[in-house]
Amino acid sequence: MKIWIFMRKELLESWRNYHLLIIAAIFIVFGIEGPLMAKLTPDILKMASTSQMTIKMPDPTSVEAWQQYFKNMTQIGIFILAVIFSGTISNEISKGTLVNLVTKGLPRYAIVIAKYVVAMLQWCLAVIVAFLINWGYTAYYFPDDKSPNIWTGMWPLLVFGLLFVAVVIFGSTLSKSNYVH
User: TM segments (predicted)?
Assistant: First the structure.
């Protein structure tokens, strides 16, 4: 019961600190950007080529759109995740906001679990929304059947993100600030 109450506080805090908005905006851009860049890259290279140098590229397929999506998620998406959640516990400890809650009877494990669940929900929601947007645009731009098993590629990404969130929150409990010297 205490975990649910603290989770509500964490969700409200992530809304007020614009964490939800930042994550949603960035991951929506990732969902749109993958198929769009796969579609436009040959045209951009054609415009950049001169009469002395010609660049020949094969026609883009849905595979390039999915490669772009997974590259963005595993590189920039994980980095954004680390930046946003790096100081979740250490910031509250340094501000002293958890002292009253812990002295009033809130268990410490409830704080850690609630923060992990809220971060996990934000990560899963962002990845799934970006995945669905990317899927829609890829199906629109590339109506080929070259990437039939895209759903199986999403699960390792989700699991890796969940593991990464756990490591970031664990690191936040060990440090006194966002940046450990």
Answer: 20-38, 69-89, 109-133, 153-174
Summary mean pLDDT of the chain: 85
State how far the alpha carbon of 24 is from the alpha carbons of 29, 91, 125, 179, in Å: 9, 23, 9, 25
Q: How far apart are CA 170 and CA 75, in angstroms?
A: 21
Q: What predicted TM-score, i.e. pTM, was given to this entire model?
A: 0.84
* Closest alpha carbon to 171 in 119, 98, 95, 100: 119
Domain boundaries, the chain: 2-174
Return the ∠ at Cα 162 (arms to 157 and 166), rounded to 5°. 145
pLDDT digits (tens, 9 = 90+) for 3-16: 888 888 888 988 99
Token output for 4: 């649910």
Can you tell me which residue has the tokens 């790096």? 86
Q: Which of 28, 32, 50, 29 is nearest to 40 (CA)?
A: 32
Q: Of 161, 128, 146, 3, give the one whose Cα is nearest residue 63.
A: 146
| pLDDT for 116 beyond 90 | yes
How many C-beta neighbours within 10 Å does residue 44 have? 11
Count of beta carbons in the 10 Å neighbourhood of residue 16? 9
